[in-house]
Amino acid sequence: MLRFYEQKIQEVCGAFKFPHKIQATAILYFKRFYLRWSVMEHDPKHIMLTCIYTSCKVEEFHVSAEELGKGIQQDHQVILRNEMLVLQSLGFDLIVYSPYRSIDGFADDIEDLQEAAKLEIDKNMLTDAPLLFPPGQLALAALRRLNKELKAFDFDRYVKSVCSRLRNTHAEAELVNFLNDIDVMVKDAKIPVAKDMRHIDRKLKHCRNPGLHDENKKREKKSKHKSKRSFSEMQSSAPA
């Protein structure tokens, strides 16, 4: 479920043409928020908007809550109401190091692959990898997957050159293992479709407000009773 809304963050940021760093920051805020809270307690649909708004402020890309809410047809007051909650949940630790910045450095070393590699990083961001691996490894994993398709350069040789700068004989094997782990996460990632999410949302609403289910049952029962009564009245008033 959370991956669905992480993808929505990417879509919203793309629609507003926000820089990739805002998208990465918003997704990491969202992930970290739900390390502490459950979707039973706070609606991801609302929290994701506040995460986008907060990331814009932190990355010094001005957009008002009204403008953001209007652009996606949501009440901007929801964004503002959750702002302090999100900040407190993050422990006011708002600095995020993005793999999109790392990709610029790696791509400068080889060829002009930045834009294509950033699309691969988008896939990494929809997994738990950003919580487990540093930005540089996320960027290298994206480059490796891209290079398997394009065959643009000798990736193994490039990794050796990167590791030689670290002067660590074990660094290369460890790094390859980390990249493999990231790729497995990307391969196993599954994002629910909108139809499934509607069903999940209905169940969540009942879980957050158990009385809602009883109210719906009463409403349905009352509606059926009213329909039966109307039918009986029609039959009694019909001419013989």
N-end to C-end Cα span = 59 Å
Unreliable segments of 5+ consecutive residues? none
Number of strands: 0
Strand content: under 5%
Any idea what the shape is?
elongated
Helix content: over 70%
Element order: H for helix, E for strand: HHHHHHHHHHHHHH
Return Rg in Å.
25 Å
Number of helical regions: 14
- Give me the oligomer status: single chain
Main β sheet profile: none
Whole-number average pLDDT?
A: 81
- Return the structural class: mainly alpha
Structure, described:
- The longest helix is centred in the last third of the chain and has 28 residues, at 210-237.
- Helix 8 (114-125) packs across helix 10.
- This protein is mostly helical.
- 76% of the residues lie in helices and 0% in strands.
What structural keywords apply?
elongated; 240 residues; mainly alpha
Brief write-up:
The protein has helices spanning 2-15, 20-36, 44-58, 65-71, 76-81, 83-89, 99-109, 114-125, 129-132, 135-150, 155-166, 171-188, 194-208, 210-237.
Ordered list of secondary-structure elements with their pairings:
Blueprint: H1 2-15, H2 20-36, H3 44-58, H4 65-71, H5 76-81, H6 83-89, H7 99-109, H8 114-125, H9 129-132, H10 135-150, H11 155-166, H12 171-188, H13 194-208, H14 210-237
Helix pairs in contact: 1-2, 1-3, 2-3, 7-8, 7-10, 8-10, 10-12, 13-14
